[in-house]
Each structure stands twice: as C-alpha cells, then as structure tokens.
Request: fold
Amino acid sequence: MTELPEPPETTLRYLVRADLVGANPPTWRRLTLPGDLTLDRVHDALQIAFEWTNSHLHRFSPTEDRYSDGPVRIVTQFDLDEGDEGVLETEVRLDQFVELAGDNFYYTYDLGDDWEHKVVVESVDPLDAGDHGIRCLEGRRTAPPEDVGGIHWYQHLRAVAADLRHPEHHDLREYFAWLPPESEPDLDAVNRGLNRLAGAATTLDWLRGQSTPLSTLVRALGKEAQLFTAGFVTDAALTEPIEITEAAATQATAVFRTVLRHVRGGIRLTSAGYLPPPSVVALMQELDPEQRWIGTANREIQTAPLLQLRETMTGLGLLRKYRGELLVTRQGERLVDSPVELWNYLAARLPAEKSDRERDVGLLLLLLVAAGEGRLGQRLEASLDLMASMIGVQFTGGSPYLPASMSVVRDTRYVLEWAGSGKLMARSSTYQALASPDASLLARAALAGPPSE
Reply:
C-alpha cells in the first residue's frame, strides 16, 4: 500500500464539488474546506451539507470501488475494531488524500443503501490567516430520505408515484409517504450546521463540567451524538449572560398574567369541570382581541387554545382546582404583578412535561429553539424527531417524517409560543413564534438553570 504524502508546509483551501452519484436530476453541494481537515471531519461536513443523519457506517475511497485498496486504504474506528487494516481516517488530512485541482475521491454513506458521493477538487488556493471555516457555497436539490433503499430504488419510487398509470403504482403506494417534495437545500441552515461543527468540541468540554439536566442528558450519549448536540449548545450561547428586561418580560408573560388576573378570587367551574361561558367570553375578548379563533369562543371545551392554556398553567403550578372552583395558587398570586419573576418562574419549570422520557424530549426542543432553529419551520419537527431518536426515544407511526416527538412536548411548545408572540393566538404561524428572540431567550434561560444570586 502506497504511503500517504506529507502534508504541505502551508495549509491550502480546497474548493470541492460533491455529487450524489446516480442522482437525476443532479444533487450536489459546493464547499470550501481547509486542507488540514482530517477525513473524519470531512465526513461530518458532508453529512451536514447533504443533511444526512449520520446514522450509518461510511467509507472513503480514492476510487469508485470502495472495496479496492487503491493507493491507500482509509478505515474508520469501526473497521479497525472489526479487524480491517488501513490508515485511520482521523489521521489522514484532506491535503494528503487529494492534492491538485481535478483530483477526486469517493465517499459512501450507509453501506447498505450505498449513497455514493463523488468529490472533485475544483481549485486549490492559499488559505487566509485565521480562516479555517467550512462553508457550503452552492447546491442543488435536497438529498433523498434515509433508509429508502438507495438511489436507484428511490428514483424508481419517484417515477412510479408520478405516473398514475404505472403498473406498480397501486402496489407501491404505501411507500410514497417516504418521498418528501423535491426542494432546494437551505444553505443558511447548512452553514449554521457547519458552524456548529466548528465549535462543538470546545463546547462539549465546557458542557461536561456543568451540572444541569441538559449536561446529564448529553453525557449519556455516544461520542458522535455528543458532538452533534454540543453544536446546538454552541448556537444557544449558554455560556453568555441571560438578561430579561421588564418590558420584555411583560410581553412574554402577558398571556399568563391575563388568566391569573381573571381567576383571582376563584371561578366556579361547570358540573363537567369547565370554565363557565361568561368567563370564556371575557377571557377570549382579552386574549384574542383580533378574533383569530375560528369558533364562537363561548364554551371552553370548544375553545381549544384556552383549554390548553388553563391545563398548562395548572401543570406549571399557577392554577389549581379545589371543590369545583378554579383558583390561583400562592405562587400565582405572588407572581401575577411581577413579570420578571414570573418569567424566571416559567424558565425554571421548563420543560413542562411530567415523565422522564417526555422531559428529555422537552430539553431537546428547548435546545433547538434556544439555538435559533425555530426558523426551520416545519423542518423543526424532523430535527426534533432525529434528536429524540439519538437519546433512544422511539415513537410508533412507521415514518420518520411524522412529527411524533413534537406531540409529546405540547406544554413546553405552547409556553414558548405564548412567550414568543405575547399572545394566545398569534397573527404569525406557530413556527414564527418559536423563531422569535423572546422564545429563544426563554429557552436559553430554561436550559441554563436559575440565575445566580
């Protein structure tokens, strides 16, 4: 086996294009990579660029035949543990594997589905001092879903799904749910992921020295999952001071304080245990002045947002039921006129779920929102499902695209939405509320723990 060349004396910047082999239309990414990047980090960068989930084995090869040694055989730690021989990917730099413009190599992800990528060096240029970042400059089309069976089966499914007269259309229709709409990559999201990759190791060292529910959760993960999660902790800026102003707290807690003021003195519930119609009308007039709720808003059982709010506030210890009456708790009485204290109280009780499993998923939702991932829109659900699977939480449903994990953290999600918009029924969408700075700040405070005295 040929020896690897010595790395150059000065680090160079590589402009590469990675194409998913066999994809039609072409699916590709163009990235800039520092030449001193080791191949295990190149693997991480390609995973993020194509939005794979790092859930399978991978392999680098200098030729299209990944089982051919070629000039050098690159192996992973798993390969070594299985008795294979070769050079460990953590010991090989990119500028040792390829040297000149026009050189190429192959990266295969999931040795069952065989997602093969051809990576071609387009140019090699001097690296600016202090610039060791990884960036995705361009790309076309999102990658196929994981575990769908490989590129040829995936494209066959797409062709069959698009042709109602195809002889296999009826027999294969149960698989069509695996086919997300074709779309273009979100380069902003990809580059945020690449930035997280750069700061993950340092953040992980800091996180290991903390004593919070999040740090405990992360310590229980495997190495790759720890680094992946630590990247979001970097974006959440948990090492920076968290300050809430009186004005911001007043807006973020407006929904909660409105209910506390109305319930002061107690409200007699109906025989079925619901708020009486006059109370529902009065509350909704203040909580939903724009009348965004589609119903008549005079019966609590038919006014889902108000019922959810009351139940969530009860779970948070701000309201209680006693002998047929809804009452404000002592904590609620203490906090109703103190927005900053109420805000800190809410932060200290998030995640709001009861079971250990649901609280762990709630921590992950807080982390994603604190890191600014609320801007992902509906893709936030898929991100939460992925991270839930990393901590061993599995949901039934048969498809990784169902927002199963979001359904078990509704209380935490609603608290963040209400704080993010300052309203019960925001004019913006749910995801815009989760993307707001107010929602992110509350999530950060919840993860960081109570403020020091």
